[in-house]
Design a protein that fits this description.
Layout lengths: L2 H4 L3 H11 L5 H20 L4 E3 L3 E8 L2 E4 L6 E4 L2 E8 L1 H14 L1
Antiparallel strand pairs: 1-2, 2-5, 3-4
Helix pairs in contact: 2-3
Length: about 100
């Protein structure tokens, strides 16, 4: 099984939530997922960190300007500084992944 067939998309997540929560239709599930994602994005765009205890934290890390290389020519290229999103998994998530992946990889 390739990685793409095991990936959970946003629409898969919406469907799973609507099936698991009684009286919660697809529209309610989609609205909930969109609100959660929008709040995380808003927090990051303001330079804040978002922590979901037991799952992990999202933050923004600044990457300094640097000199890179053009892979075709080897010429030096000036790369500007930029903000990058970063996710750090929580202890519970790390534990579940490590226990689960031992059985499936």
């Amino acid at each position: 099984m390739n990685d793409e067939s095991r990936a959970i998309t946003k629409s898969n997540l919406v469907e799973r939530i609507s099936k698991k929560v009684a009286n919660f239709g697809l529209r309610d599930s989609e609205l909930s997922v969109n609100i959660i994602l929008d709040e995380i994005i808003n927090s990051l765009s303001e330079g804040n960190r978002t922590e979901i205890r037991g799952f992990g934290s999202f933050s923004v890390h600044y990457r300094k300007p640097r000199i890179g290389r053009n892979p075709k020519t080897g010429e030096p290229v000036s790369l500007p500084g930029k903000n990058k999103s970063h996710f750090k998994p929580g202890k519970s998530l790390k534990s579940r992944i490590n226990n689960h992946s031992d059985n499936n990889l």
